[in-house]
Amino acid sequence: MKKSFLIASAVAMALAFMGCSNGTDTEYVEVEKQVEKEKPVFVTATTEAASRIQYFKQDLPSLVNYMWQKDDGTWDDMDYENYYGYTMVAQDTEAKALPAGTKLGDIAKKYEGFTIAALATIKEADGKVTANVYYDRNIITYKFGDKELKGLYEASFTVPGEDTTSQYLVQWKSEGLNFGRATVGTSRQFGSKDAVFSAEWHSKSQAIGSQLDRTTVAVGDVIFADGTYAPSTAQLTDLQKNLAESVVFYKGTAADPLGARVLAVNVKKSSDSMWAKYNSTGVNTNFTDIQASYGGSAPSYTFTGDNDGSDNWDKICAADPAGSASDKAKENYPAFYFVNTETPGYYLPTLAELYEVYKNKAILNAAFEKLGVDKFEERSYWSSSQGISNSNNAWCVTFSNDDLYYGNKWYYSCVCSIRVFN
Hints:
Elements: H1 3-17, E1 25-30, E2 40-42, E3 52-58, E4 62-69, E5 75-83, E6 86-88, E7 94-95, E8 102-103, H2 104-107, E9 114-123, E10 129-137, E11 139-144, E12 147-152, E13 156-158, E14 168-174, E15 177-183, E16 187-189, E17 195-203, E18 222-224, E19 229-230, H3 238-242, E20 244-251, E21 262-266, E22 270-274, H4 281-284, E23 292-295, E24 302-305, H5 312-319, H6 329-332, H7 334-342, H8 351-359, H9 361-371, E25 380-386, E26 393-398, E27 403-408, E28 412-415, E29 418-421
Parallel strand pairs: 3-10, 11-17
Antiparallel strand pairs: 1-9, 2-8, 3-6, 3-7, 4-5, 9-10, 11-12, 13-16, 14-15, 14-17, 18-19, 18-20, 20-21, 21-29, 22-28, 23-24, 25-26, 26-27
């Protein structure tokens, strides 16, 4: 089935679901067939403030059965083997007057991994207009040597490789884009950019570094993907740099506030993520088990409440099973989703743990520079700790000036993840 027909069908069905009256003048334009964004969309001025623009992103394909109304008014079954539905980006809906001569380029938005595919306009007798803009997922191609994989943005694929028993650690790189580490046969997602990746292989039977020894490991030491490590003073090989996974930021005893643990922060970080989506269960729920607070002054703050974040996501899932489900977590809990999918085995630190990361920022940044990965940004980072006075807020640490503050969970902040090594 042709893509253009799928687009037309999706738009037509979306209009039908909106319950348009018989007198509504409805048209849609397949943007890919014109000079699209510069062509006037509305030739008649609209002055009603209730006119609006809605944006729809293409879903990943799914197998569905659909009833379809034919031109003669009768209904027929249509079997879409891979039907491309569209989901509204509700928070981007705009109430806006649309003057004559308004172009698609005037109302278009940019979504990473998506390209405009179609426009549908509905004009009512009172002059109100609804403009629906539809975005298709980009088709991404990855090449791994002689293997080529092609799929839609965010679709899952299995990591290719010569050994299906996952006996090798691999890392793929392309100019300006780092695919990250994975094992053969595991699941990953297509990103928003086309890329050609080269694979670097390493047998799990051969240790990358030295066996991690709790008595000698220290802050600033590098931990590799197989759990071995190298001291901060060691000269690392290119392979070791490529397979470095985290850097130690804490080593304590039972008498210390964070206990007798070795903690390391993952080299991969996110620049912009919400703790929870606006007006979601994650914002409106008071997660009492993950509350925290602090007292005193920098740099000797004292922390009370939850100081171990290793099970905080589990506690959120128990309190909000629907909102934290695998198909909803990315939308509802973006910071946690990043940690769980991009740094599996790691977790979002509590306020106390995150402040320990901040205190050792200079040592960690020196290690990151040595490894050739991004340093910490001079911005705020999310903790997994919720505030006590208001369920809408979670704790942040500002890495430019050690400020600790409540942030609205739907604000955008940076994210890092940590792990316990005993």
